[in-house]
Amino acid sequence: MASVCCCTTWAFCTLYLRYGAVASRLEILKAKNGPFSFCILRGFSGKYSYHGEEYDATAAPEGAVYDRCRQEIAKALKLNAPCKTKNCTFDGVWNGGGGAGQDTIYAASAFYYLAANVGFIDSKAPSAEVTPAMFKAAACKACLLSVKEAAVEYPNVRSDDMPYTCMDLTYQYTLLVNGFAMHPMKRITLVSKVKRGQYFIGATWPLGSAIESISPKKQVQDQ
After folding, report:
1. In sequence order, which ranges of the chain are alpha helices (DSSP H)?
2. How confident is the model over 140-149, as pLDDT tens digits?
3. Could you give the CA distance from residue 55 to residue 29 in angstroms, rounded to a whole number?
């Protein structure tokens, strides 16, 4: 299953299965109340499929509504799930330990590409500094659009992803602020590539997963 990683300057990653950019959509659709999702752009009616699972993804008649979409996402994140370790973020997953190393946050993969595709960072730059509030501002704008209007506004977003533009932006804001407890104005760095010597390495979730696999945090949790 796809995953999302939270990486810090201490060079470890906390891994969250089912909450990656693609997998999270299914979790959010499962959390909706009634036949409609307030995270889907106006005018869309269809099914969302992921790894053999299929769920209805029909927009409400009035289209996406940012505040109601946030409620669906908060439910999907299971913010109040039982925590078996000292501190957790969401769905009962350890928060990585905290500390000064989390003063500087790097976010890769979908965080970078979504921001680039909707146009609030330069898609040609290997990194960009943003705040969670910038995701919120972009979400509030996207949620007002129909699917057809969004296709004109966001030409770099794939047609298959277009109906979920409000959902994806709102999810990333909620994940950062409510899931990882970041201040909306905290400066974070979005990266698509990391420079190592004279080479650039793609900063994608498999790299974060590899870092997480060898992280000493596992030893701390077992003590």
Report:
1. 23-30, 66-77, 110-118, 132-142, 147-153, 165-174, 205-213, 217-222
2. 999 999 999 9
3. 7
